[in-house]
Amino acid sequence: MENNCIFCKIANGEIPSATVYEDEDFRAILDLNPASKGHTLIIPKKHAANLFELPEETAEKVLSIAKKLGARLKEGLHAEGLNVVQNNGEAAGQTVMHFHMHLIPRYNNDTVNVKWVPGTLTEDDKKEILGLF
Ligand code: AMP
Ligand code: ZN
């Protein structure tokens, strides 16, 4: 556990939370300031600051939990859609530096905003990026 990490404390039960799911490696809780009704966070119990620090095995498990909980939220709350969001780094909007995955149920005409202005893929960028792999 990392000192003074609020999600370490929540995930390990040191601070109470509205828990919707728990297993050996994860706890999923309701977000205190939900973007929409049902906004849930999946938090690993072992500290990892972000996706890059997440152990491979934990990374593999998290999407399977997102699928299961997301389906339950969508159906149970009669949502029309679901965003799965995961921020890494301040530039990407991460505010709590312990990996977490957001499940955000979406309702027709809700006020959630996860949109961006579509750009254009330039030939130079395409060449540069394809060269990375
Ligand atoms: P991010 O911006 O991706 O780091 O998201 C952090 C999320 O954690 C935000 O949606 C906050 O509302 C949520 N949050 C912060 N502290 C708590 C807490 N103590 N319990 C539940 N959710 C929290
Ligand atoms: Zn932590």
Strand element count: 5
Proportion in β-strands:
15-25%
The biggest beta sheet is recorded as: 5 strands, antiparallel
Record the strand order, biggest sheet. 1-2-3-5-4
Low-confidence stretches: none
Rounded to an integer in angstroms, the radius of gyration calculated over CA atoms is: 17 Å
Element string (H = helix, E = strand)? HEEEHEEH
Shape: globular
What separation lies between the terminal Cα atoms?
A: 34 Å
- Name the hetero compounds present: adenosine monophosphate, zinc ion
Structural class computed from helices and strand pairing: alpha+beta
Q: Please report the number of helical segments.
A: 3
Average pLDDT, all residues: 97
Helix fraction, binned, reads 25-40%
